[in-house]
């Protein structure tokens, strides 16, 4: 009997020892795993980002690849419109218009074309600006979770470029480039001059479009009209030009107006969302939000376009100009053309 009790006690002790050892092993494994995965920046956003990482990867790579196709599309469509204007419309203008109107169309058309080509070329080839590699030089206000590097004010990480971009506005697939501190003006000027060019083509080609459209409608009458191949090609080209130009004028015009409103407020597209949230948060506390990068509507435009003296409106806005924007994009001091002194606020 004693021997049986002794055996039972020994078995229970062994079982406890095994459970204890298993518990120790579990705690040790847990500690090892947490030590390996520990990151002071880890929160629910990081976990969600990690789960969605394959989808982001796919979208980023597709967008990067499509960027090249989109740039080719912009160049191809613009070239087709220019070719139609030179081959179909210009001979007609030279034959039928008065000398004053001929001069106007030649001068305005070529000026607009030069402005479009210059700003598009500069927008796709100019780097938007990135924080320097030497991290000690930076007075960063936050840390980029992707680059694990200081992020200056107004800088955001672009997942398509896989880099931090100074004063990032957005990643534009039509430029296959990020829009940031150094090419924001080129991007906006391209949108503006392209819209102006499309409106100009739509207005000046309206009469020709009406005639060409009416002629195309007669193609299927009986007996069919006797249009030559050149005449049919002319009709179709004019309709193509008008439909494409008026559609782009509407779509790009709306985008240009949206960006113009943002520039007037001294915000980028990303800051628009950040500032709106901040405005709502402060409103609940009975406080008023003020954008630290806004110097007032007129001064915001002067800073954006780099207009320091009145003659710059001609040399830097109405003519192609490769001048650099104010500042380095790393810190945001008051630009020299802004006279009104403002108390610096904490950057967001
Ligand atoms: Zn980054
Ligand atoms: Zn980008």
Automatic annotation (TrEMBL):
Q: Is Acyltransferase among this UniProt entry's keywords?
A: yes
How the protein sits in the membrane?
Multi-pass membrane protein
Q: Which GO terms describe its cellular component?
A: membrane
The reaction(s) annotated as catalysed by this protein in its Swiss-Prot or TrEMBL entry are: L-cysteinyl-[protein] + hexadecanoyl-CoA = S-hexadecanoyl-L-cysteinyl-[protein] + CoA
Q: Which domain of life is it from?
A: Eukaryota
Query: InterPro entries from the xrefs?
Result: Palmitoyltrfase_DHHC, PFA4/ZDH16/20/ERF2-like
Give the subcellular location. Answer: Membrane
Transmembrane region positions? 65-89, 101-121, 186-203, 238-261
UniProt keywords, alphabetically = Acyltransferase, Membrane, Transferase, Transmembrane, Transmembrane helix
The primary location reported for this protein is: membrane
Q: Where is the Palmitoyltransferase DHHC domain?
A: 142-273
Asked if the Swiss-Prot or TrEMBL record annotates the protein with the keyword Repressor, the reply is no
**EC number(s) given by UniProt:** 2.3.1.225
Example GO molecular function: protein-cysteine S-palmitoyltransferase activity
About its domains, the entry says: The DHHC domain is required for palmitoyltransferase activity.
Family per similarity comment: Belongs to the DHHC palmitoyltransferase family.
**In its UniProt entry, what is this protein called?**
Palmitoyltransferase
UniProt organism field: Patagioenas fasciata monilis
Q: Which gene encodes it?
A: ZDHHC16
């Amino acid at each position: 009997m004693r021997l049986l009790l002794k055996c039972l006690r020994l078995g229970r002790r062994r079982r406890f020892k095994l459970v204890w050892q298993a518990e120790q092993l579990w705690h040790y494994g847990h500690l090892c795993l947490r030590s390996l995965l520990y990151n002071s920046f880890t929160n629910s956003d990081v976990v969600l980002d990690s789960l969605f990482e394959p989808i982001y990867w796919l979208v980023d790579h597709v967008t990067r690849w499509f960027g090249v196709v989109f740039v080719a599309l912009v160049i191809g469509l613009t070239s087709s419109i220019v070719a139609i204007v030179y081959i179909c419309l210009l001979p007609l203008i030279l034959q039928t218009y008065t000398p004053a109107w001929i001069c106007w169309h030649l001068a305005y058309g070529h000026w607009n074309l030069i402005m479009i080509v210059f700003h598009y070329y500069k927008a796709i080839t100019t780097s938007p600006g990135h924080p320097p590699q030497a991290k000690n030089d930076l007075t960063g206000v936050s840390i980029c979770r992707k680059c694990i590097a200081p992020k200056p004010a107004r800088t955001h990480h672009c997942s398509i470029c896989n880099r931090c971009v100074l004063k990032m506005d957005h990643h534009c697939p039509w430029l296959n480039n990020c829009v940031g501190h150094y090419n924001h003006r080129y991007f906006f000027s391209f949108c503006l001059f392209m819209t102006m060019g499309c409106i100009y083509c739509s207005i000046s080609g309206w009469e020709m479009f009406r005639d060409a459209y009416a002629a195309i409608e007669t193609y299927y009458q009986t007996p069919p009209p006797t249009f030559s191949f050149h005449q049919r090609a002319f009709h179709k080209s004019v309709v193509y030009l008008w439909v494409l130009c008026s559609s782009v004028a509407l779509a790009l015009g709306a985008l240009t107006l949206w960006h113009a409103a943002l520039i007037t407020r001294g915000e980028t597209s990303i800051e628009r969302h950040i500032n709106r949230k901040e405005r709502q948060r402060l409103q609940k506390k009975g406080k008023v939000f003020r954008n630290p990068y806004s110097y007032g509507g007129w001064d915001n435009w002067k800073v954006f376009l780099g207009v320091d003296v009145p003659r710059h409106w001609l040399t830097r806005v109405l003519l192609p100009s490769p001048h650099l924007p104010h500042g380095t994009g790393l810190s945001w001091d008051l630009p020299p053309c802004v006279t009104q002194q403002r108390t610096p606020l904490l950057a967001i």
